[in-house]
Task: structure prediction
Amino acid sequence: MKLPLAYYQQPDVVAIARDLVGKYLFTRIDGVLTGGRIVETEAYAHIDDQACHSHLGRFTKRTRVMYEAGGVAYVYLIYGRYALFNIITNVAGKADAVLIRGLEPTEGIAEMQLRRGLTTAAKNLTAGPGLLTQALGIQVSHYGTDLSGDLIWLEDHQEVVPAADIVASPRVGIDYAGADAALPWRFRIKGNPWTSPAK
DNA sequence: CTAAGGATTAACT
DNA sequence: GTTAATCCTTAGT
Result:
Protein backbone atom coordinates (compact mmCIF):
# COMPACT_ATOMS: atom_id res chain seq x y z
CA MET A 1 0.00 0.00 0.00
CA LYS A 2 1.01 3.59 -0.58
CA LEU A 3 2.60 5.30 2.38
CA PRO A 4 0.29 8.01 3.80
CA LEU A 5 1.41 11.58 4.35
CA ALA A 6 1.30 10.99 8.09
CA TYR A 7 4.15 8.54 7.70
CA TYR A 8 6.49 11.25 6.47
CA GLN A 9 5.45 13.66 9.17
CA GLN A 10 6.83 11.62 12.03
CA PRO A 11 9.40 13.61 14.02
CA ASP A 12 12.35 11.20 13.98
CA VAL A 13 13.99 11.50 10.57
CA VAL A 14 16.67 8.96 11.43
CA ALA A 15 14.05 6.37 12.33
CA ILE A 16 12.24 7.06 9.07
CA ALA A 17 15.44 6.71 7.05
CA ARG A 18 16.08 3.35 8.63
CA ASP A 19 12.47 2.24 8.16
CA LEU A 20 12.45 3.22 4.48
CA VAL A 21 15.02 0.55 3.74
CA GLY A 22 12.98 -2.30 2.27
CA LYS A 23 10.11 -0.04 1.16
CA TYR A 24 9.38 0.55 -2.54
CA LEU A 25 9.71 3.70 -4.60
CA PHE A 26 7.70 4.12 -7.79
CA THR A 27 7.24 6.80 -10.42
CA ARG A 28 4.75 7.11 -13.25
CA ILE A 29 6.39 9.68 -15.46
CA ASP A 30 5.35 9.91 -19.10
CA GLY A 31 2.77 7.27 -18.22
CA VAL A 32 5.35 4.57 -17.60
CA LEU A 33 5.57 2.77 -14.28
CA THR A 34 9.10 2.31 -12.99
CA GLY A 35 10.42 1.60 -9.54
CA GLY A 36 12.00 -0.78 -7.11
CA ARG A 37 13.00 -1.60 -3.58
CA ILE A 38 14.91 0.97 -1.54
CA VAL A 39 18.20 -0.49 -0.37
CA GLU A 40 20.11 2.58 0.78
CA THR A 41 19.13 5.87 2.46
CA GLU A 42 20.65 8.72 4.41
CA ALA A 43 19.05 10.98 7.01
CA TYR A 44 19.55 14.73 7.06
CA ALA A 45 18.30 16.66 10.07
CA HIS A 46 17.34 20.31 10.11
CA ILE A 47 19.16 21.37 13.25
CA ASP A 48 22.54 20.27 14.59
CA ASP A 49 23.52 18.82 11.26
CA GLN A 50 25.82 20.88 9.10
CA ALA A 51 25.58 18.42 6.24
CA CYS A 52 21.93 19.30 5.76
CA HIS A 53 21.27 22.00 3.18
CA SER A 54 18.84 23.62 5.55
CA HIS A 55 21.11 23.77 8.57
CA LEU A 56 21.04 26.92 10.71
CA GLY A 57 17.66 27.77 9.27
CA ARG A 58 18.91 29.00 5.94
CA PHE A 59 15.85 29.75 3.88
CA THR A 60 16.57 30.12 0.18
CA LYS A 61 15.03 29.18 -3.12
CA ARG A 62 16.82 25.87 -3.08
CA THR A 63 15.85 24.84 0.44
CA ARG A 64 12.34 26.23 0.35
CA VAL A 65 10.46 22.95 0.17
CA MET A 66 12.46 21.50 3.03
CA TYR A 67 10.41 23.64 5.37
CA GLU A 68 7.13 22.29 4.11
CA ALA A 69 5.31 19.50 5.88
CA GLY A 70 6.69 16.01 5.28
CA GLY A 71 5.68 14.12 2.16
CA VAL A 72 7.09 16.16 -0.71
CA ALA A 73 10.05 15.53 -2.98
CA TYR A 74 13.20 17.62 -2.73
CA VAL A 75 15.13 17.18 -5.95
CA TYR A 76 18.32 19.09 -6.59
CA LEU A 77 21.18 19.10 -9.02
CA ILE A 78 24.68 18.16 -7.98
CA TYR A 79 27.91 18.54 -9.93
CA GLY A 80 25.97 20.11 -12.76
CA ARG A 81 24.73 16.78 -14.02
CA TYR A 82 22.91 14.58 -11.61
CA ALA A 83 19.60 14.98 -9.84
CA LEU A 84 19.37 13.59 -6.32
CA PHE A 85 16.04 12.61 -4.83
CA ASN A 86 15.21 13.44 -1.23
CA ILE A 87 12.03 12.96 0.76
CA ILE A 88 11.05 15.76 3.10
CA THR A 89 9.95 14.57 6.52
CA ASN A 90 8.65 16.02 9.79
CA VAL A 91 6.11 18.81 10.15
CA ALA A 92 6.17 22.20 8.45
CA GLY A 93 9.04 24.32 9.70
CA LYS A 94 11.26 21.34 10.56
CA ALA A 95 13.41 20.85 7.51
CA ASP A 96 14.37 17.20 7.81
CA ALA A 97 15.01 15.01 4.76
CA VAL A 98 15.90 11.50 3.69
CA LEU A 99 18.15 11.00 0.66
CA ILE A 100 17.54 7.88 -1.43
CA ARG A 101 20.91 6.53 -2.49
CA GLY A 102 20.22 3.04 -3.78
CA LEU A 103 17.35 1.16 -5.42
CA GLU A 104 16.89 -2.43 -6.50
CA PRO A 105 14.86 -2.28 -9.74
CA THR A 106 11.67 -4.33 -9.96
CA GLU A 107 9.30 -2.47 -12.31
CA GLY A 108 9.89 -1.05 -15.79
CA ILE A 109 13.45 -2.23 -16.14
CA ALA A 110 13.39 -1.88 -19.93
CA GLU A 111 12.22 1.72 -19.63
CA MET A 112 14.93 2.44 -17.06
CA GLN A 113 17.59 1.14 -19.41
CA LEU A 114 16.22 3.38 -22.12
CA ARG A 115 16.38 6.43 -19.88
CA ARG A 116 19.93 5.60 -18.92
CA GLY A 117 20.84 5.20 -22.58
CA LEU A 118 21.79 1.58 -22.15
CA THR A 119 21.11 -1.29 -24.49
CA THR A 120 22.17 -4.09 -22.18
CA ALA A 121 21.11 -4.87 -18.63
CA ALA A 122 23.63 -2.91 -16.61
CA LYS A 123 24.08 -4.04 -13.07
CA ASN A 124 24.49 -0.44 -11.97
CA LEU A 125 21.12 0.57 -13.44
CA THR A 126 19.96 2.21 -10.22
CA ALA A 127 22.98 1.80 -7.94
CA GLY A 128 23.72 5.35 -6.91
CA PRO A 129 21.66 8.44 -6.09
CA GLY A 130 22.24 10.17 -9.43
CA LEU A 131 21.57 6.99 -11.38
CA LEU A 132 18.31 5.97 -9.83
CA THR A 133 16.82 9.39 -10.55
CA GLN A 134 17.80 9.02 -14.20
CA ALA A 135 16.32 5.55 -14.34
CA LEU A 136 13.05 6.63 -12.74
CA GLY A 137 12.79 9.79 -14.85
CA ILE A 138 13.03 12.10 -11.85
CA GLN A 139 14.26 15.57 -12.75
CA VAL A 140 14.70 18.84 -10.95
CA SER A 141 11.35 19.90 -12.36
CA HIS A 142 9.84 17.44 -9.89
CA TYR A 143 11.05 19.64 -7.04
CA GLY A 144 8.19 19.87 -4.56
CA THR A 145 6.15 16.98 -5.96
CA ASP A 146 3.54 15.67 -3.52
CA LEU A 147 4.37 12.08 -2.64
CA SER A 148 0.73 11.19 -2.01
CA GLY A 149 -0.02 11.79 -5.70
CA ASP A 150 0.29 9.54 -8.74
CA LEU A 151 3.60 10.82 -10.11
CA ILE A 152 6.10 9.78 -7.45
CA TRP A 153 5.20 7.71 -4.41
CA LEU A 154 6.36 5.04 -1.96
CA GLU A 155 4.75 1.76 -1.06
CA ASP A 156 4.99 -0.57 1.89
CA HIS A 157 5.02 -4.17 0.73
CA GLN A 158 5.06 -5.49 4.27
CA GLU A 159 8.55 -6.82 3.78
CA VAL A 160 10.53 -7.25 6.92
CA VAL A 161 14.23 -6.63 6.53
CA PRO A 162 16.04 -8.35 9.40
CA ALA A 163 17.66 -5.78 11.64
CA ALA A 164 20.94 -7.63 11.29
CA ASP A 165 20.88 -7.00 7.54
CA ILE A 166 20.68 -3.24 7.88
CA VAL A 167 24.00 -1.60 8.54
CA ALA A 168 24.42 1.96 9.75
CA SER A 169 27.49 3.93 8.76
CA PRO A 170 28.68 7.52 8.32
CA ARG A 171 27.27 9.39 5.37
CA VAL A 172 29.04 9.90 2.09
CA GLY A 173 30.77 12.91 0.62
CA ILE A 174 30.11 15.32 3.43
CA ASP A 175 33.52 15.82 4.98
CA TYR A 176 32.84 19.53 4.94
CA ALA A 177 30.31 18.97 7.71
CA GLY A 178 32.99 18.60 10.35
CA ALA A 179 32.08 16.55 13.40
CA ASP A 180 28.63 15.83 12.00
CA ALA A 181 30.22 13.78 9.23
CA ALA A 182 30.77 10.97 11.72
CA LEU A 183 27.08 10.48 12.51
CA PRO A 184 25.97 6.96 11.46
CA TRP A 185 22.95 8.15 9.52
CA ARG A 186 23.44 6.14 6.36
CA PHE A 187 21.47 2.91 6.18
CA ARG A 188 21.79 0.12 3.66
CA ILE A 189 21.07 -3.55 3.21
CA LYS A 190 24.18 -5.52 3.89
CA GLY A 191 25.70 -7.10 0.80
CA ASN A 192 23.04 -5.80 -1.58
CA PRO A 193 24.59 -5.11 -5.02
CA TRP A 194 22.33 -2.11 -5.64
CA THR A 195 23.76 0.02 -2.89
CA SER A 196 25.70 3.02 -4.15
CA PRO A 197 29.29 2.57 -5.32
CA ALA A 198 30.56 5.54 -3.29
CA LYS A 199 32.88 4.73 -0.44
C1' DC B 1 42.95 7.67 -9.95
C1' DT B 2 40.98 12.27 -12.26
C1' DA B 3 37.89 15.40 -15.11
C1' DA B 4 33.69 17.13 -16.13
C1' DG B 5 29.67 20.10 -15.39
C1' DG B 6 25.92 23.61 -13.99
C1' DA B 7 23.40 25.50 -10.24
C1' DT B 8 23.81 27.81 -6.04
C1' DT B 9 25.65 30.94 -2.85
C1' DA B 10 28.71 34.15 -0.46
C1' DA B 11 31.54 37.76 -1.15
C1' DC B 12 32.88 41.24 -3.46
C1' DT B 13 32.44 45.95 -6.63
C1' DG C 1 25.61 43.98 -11.03
C1' DT C 2 29.85 40.29 -11.26
C1' DT C 3 33.24 36.61 -9.75
C1' DA C 4 34.98 32.57 -7.42
C1' DA C 5 34.35 28.61 -4.66
C1' DT C 6 31.71 24.73 -3.55
C1' DC C 7 29.00 20.54 -4.19
C1' DC C 8 24.70 14.42 -0.72
C1' DT C 9 28.55 12.13 -8.23
C1' DT C 10 29.57 9.44 -12.18
C1' DA C 11 32.11 7.92 -16.19
C1' DG C 12 36.22 7.30 -18.15
C1' DT C 13 41.47 6.77 -18.00
Remarks:
- Residues 62 and 76 of chain A are 8 Å apart (CA to CA).
- Residues 42, 44, 51-53, 76-82, 84, 86, 99, 101, 124, 128-131, 171-174, 176, 196-198 of chain A lie near DNA strand C (CB under 10 Å from a C1').
- Chain A is about 15% helix and 30% strand.
- The first helix of chain A runs from residue 5 to 8.
